[in-house]
UniProtKB/TrEMBL annotation, chain A:
Secretion signal, residue range per the UniProt entry: none
PANTHER family found in the cross-reference section: ACETYL-COA C-ACETYLTRANSFERASE, NON-SPECIFIC LIPID-TRANSFER PROTEIN-LIKE 2
Protein's recorded name: Thiolase family protein
Segments forming domain Thiolase C-terminal: 232-376
Molecular function in Gene Ontology: acetyl-CoA C-acyltransferase activity
Residue ranges of every copy of the Thiolase N-terminal domain listed in the record: 5-219
Family annotation (InterPro entries): Thiolase, Thiolase-like, Thiolase_C_2, Thiolase_N
Length: 378, 103
C-alpha cells in the first residue's frame, strides 16, 4: 500500500551560498514535478537533520519554508540511515491511515557550509563522549577499526576493498549530477593518503553539498508503481566499543526482516542500493546480506557482479563513495537511483529490466540498520 | 591494577564499561564498580592519520585500538600504532585515558 511516487535530487558537490533549506527546497520541487502531485496533496512530512543548520524542529522549519500544512510532520535522526528510516516510517504512516502522501526530504551544505575541520569534528562527536571521543577517534577511525577487523576475519585484503571504490567511481563517471567523476584504479586507491589505517582517502566517501526528496504515497500515481513491499530494522548497539563480535549481525537481522515482510528472498533481487560510507561498509553489507561470499565482495566487484551488466547491479549512480555524501540526502540518492532504474528512466546508465530491488543503510558505526524491498507492479 | 573502571553485575557476573544502572545481559540492578586487572587481547587497531581536531595531528598518526579485556568487555584505548589483532597487551589509565602497552 505504500508506493514511491516522486523522486527529486540536486547536483551533488559544491553549492556555495546555498543553505540546507535551499537544497531541500530544490529537491522537493523536483520530486513534486516528478510525481505530478500538487503541493497541497502532501499531508505528511519527515525531514532529516543538517549538521550545518542544527535546529530543534527541522520538520516544521521545512513545512514553513515550503508552505506545507501536513497532518503529520517531524524530524527523524538516525545518522546515515535517516533517509531509509524515514521512508519506512512514511510507509507506516500510510499503513496506519494517518497520511496519503508523505514527503521525505534531506539536504545539507556539508561541504561548503563549514570548514573541513568543523565537519570532521562534528562527526567525531557521534562517538562516546567519555570513552571514545577523548581518545581522538573520528568517524573514519571507527570504521577503520571495523575495516581492520573485517580484513582479519575474512582474509580479504586492502586491494580487494579498493575494487569497491573503483566500481563506485566507474558508475559515477557517466552521471551528470555526481560529485566525483574522474576514473580511478586500484593503484590510485592504494596510493591515496592514509586516513586511518587500513583506510586511505579513496576508501572514504567525500563530504558533499546536496539534497534529495522522495514522496511515499498510499496509491501509485502516473508513473510505474514502485511499491515498498518489505522492511526491516536492527539496532544492535550505538558506539563501536559495544558492537557485537559479528560485524554483519545488524545487517543480517534487518535484511532478513525486510525479505520476510516482502515474502521474498535475496535471490529474487536484481538491483541493489547499499550504503557505502567506506569501502568496508559496503563489503560487510554485501556479504552479510548474502550478495557476496564472506570476504568476497571486492573480488565479486572486480569480476563484474555489481556492474551495470552484472548479476546484481549496485549503486549505479556511484554511491556515497563517488556520487557524494551530504548527510541525510546521501543514502536518499541511492533510492532516487534505484527508483529511476526500476522505472526505466536511467538513460545511459539504465540496467536491463529490474522489477525488484533491495536497499540498505546504516547509521552510526553499523549501529542502526534499515533495509527495504522495492517491487515494480506495473 | 589498571586504573580502568568497569561495572560488574552481582547477579550474573557480566562485566561492561559504559555507565548504566541495569545489567545489559540479565537486567538485574545490583551493580558493582570494579577495576580492570589490565590484561587483554587486541580486537582491532588503527593508526589515525587525519585527526578530528588539528591539535591532535601527529606525524605518522596515533594509535587507537579496541581491546577485549580478560574480564570480558571490549574497550577503546590509546595504543601503539603497530598493534596486531590477537596480540596480548596490558591496559592502564594514563592521564585519564585507557592506554595500551605491550604485555
Ligand atoms: Zn546481569
Amino acid at each position: 500500500m505504500a508506493y514511491l511516487t516522486g523522486i527529486g535530487i540536486t547536483a551533488y558537490g559544491k553549492h556555495p551560498g546555498l543553505q540546507p533549506l535551499d537544497l531541500m527546497e530544490q529537491a522537493v520541487l523536483a520530486a513534486l514535478a516528478d510525481s505530478g502531485l500538487q503541493r497541497d496533496a502532501l499531508d505528511g512530512l519527515i525531514t532529516g537533520y543538517a549538521t550545518t543548520h542544527p535546529h530543534l524542529m527541522m520538520g516544521t522549519v521545512v513545512c514553513e519554508r515550503l508552505g506545507l500544512k501536513p497532518r503529520h510532520a517531524h524530524q527523524a535522526q538516525c545518522g546515515g540511515a535517516t533517509g531509509a528510516m524515514a521512508l519506512v516510517l512514511a510507509r507506516h504512516l500510510i499503513a496506519a491511515g494517518a497520511c496519503r502522501h508523505v514527503l521525505v526530504v534531506g539536504g545539507e551544505n556539508r561541504l561548503t557550509g563549514q570548514s573541513r575541520d568543523d565537519a570532521v569534528k562534528t562527526l567525531a562527536t557521534v562517538g562516546h563522549p567519555e570513552h571514545e571521543v577523548p581518545l581522538g577517534a573520528s568517524i573514519p577511525a571507527y570504521y577503520a577499526l571495523l575495516a581492520a577487523r573485517y580484513l582479519h576475519e575474512t582474509g580479504a585484503n586492502e586491494a580487494e576493498l579498493a575494487e569497491l571504490a573503483v566500481l563506485m567511481r566507474r558508475h559515477a563517471l557517466g552521471h551528470p549530477l555526481a560529485q566525483l567523476r574522474k576514473a580511478i584504479t586500484v593503484e590510485d586507491v592504494m596510493a591515496s593518503k592514509p586516513v586511518s589505517t587500513p583506510l586511505k582517502l579513496l576508501d572514504c566517501c567525500p563530504i558533499t553539498d546536496g539534497g534529495a526528496a522522495v514522496i511515499v504515497s498510499a496509491e501509485p500515481l502516473a508513473k510505474a508503481a514502485i511499491k515498498l513491499t518489505g522492511w526491516g530494522e536492527a539496532h544492535t548497539h550505538q558506539h563501536v566499543s559495544e558492537i557485537p563480535d559479528d560485524l554483519g549481525l545488524g545487517a543480517r537481522i534487518a535484511g532478513a526482516a525486510a525479505f520476510e515482510t516482502a515474502g521474498r528472498k535475496p535471490a529474487d533481487v536484481g538491483l541493489l542500493g547499499i550504503y557505502d560510507s567506506f569501502t568496508p561498509t559496503l563489503a560487510i553489507f554485501l556479504e552479510a546480506l548474502g550478495f557476496a561470499p564472506p570476504g568476497g565482495a571486492g573480488r565479486a566487484a572486480r569480476e563484474g557482479r555489481f556492474g551495470r551488466d552484472g548479476a546484481l547491479p549496485l549503486n549505479l549512480h556511484g554511491g556515497l563513495l563517488s556520487f557524494g555524501h551530504p548527510g541525510v540526502a546521501g543514502f536518499m540518492a541511492h533510492v532516487v537511483e534505484v527508483v529511476g532504474q526500476m522505472r526505466g528512466e536511467a538513460g545511459n546508465r539504465q540496467v536491463r529490466d529490474a522489477p525488484l530491488a533491495y536497499c540498505h543503510a546504516d547509521g552510526g558505526t553499523l549501529s542502526s540498520h534499515v533495509g527495504f524491498v522495492l517491487e515494480r507492479l506495473s | 591494577m589498571s586504573g580502568v573502571a568497569l561495572f560488574s553485575c552481582r547477579a550474573c557476573g557480566h562485566v561492561w564499561q559504559f555507565r548504566r544502572a541495569m545489567c545489559p545481559a540479565c537486567a538485574a540492578t545490583d551493580i558493582a564498580v570494579v577495576e580492570a586487572k589490565g590484561g587483554g587481547t587486541v580486537w582491532s587497531a588503527t593508526s589515525v592519520h587525519r585527526a578530528p581536531t588539528p591539535d591532535l595531528d601527529v606525524a605518522g598518526g596515533y594509535g587507537i585500538a579496541l581491546v577485549t579485556l580478560d574480564e570480558g568487555p571490549r574497550i577503546m584505548a590509546r595504543a601503539p600504532t603497530d598493534l596486531v589483532i590477537g596480540e596480548r597487551v596490558t591496559v592502564r589509565a594514563e592521564n585519564g585515558l585507557p592506554t595500551i602497552f605491550r604485555a
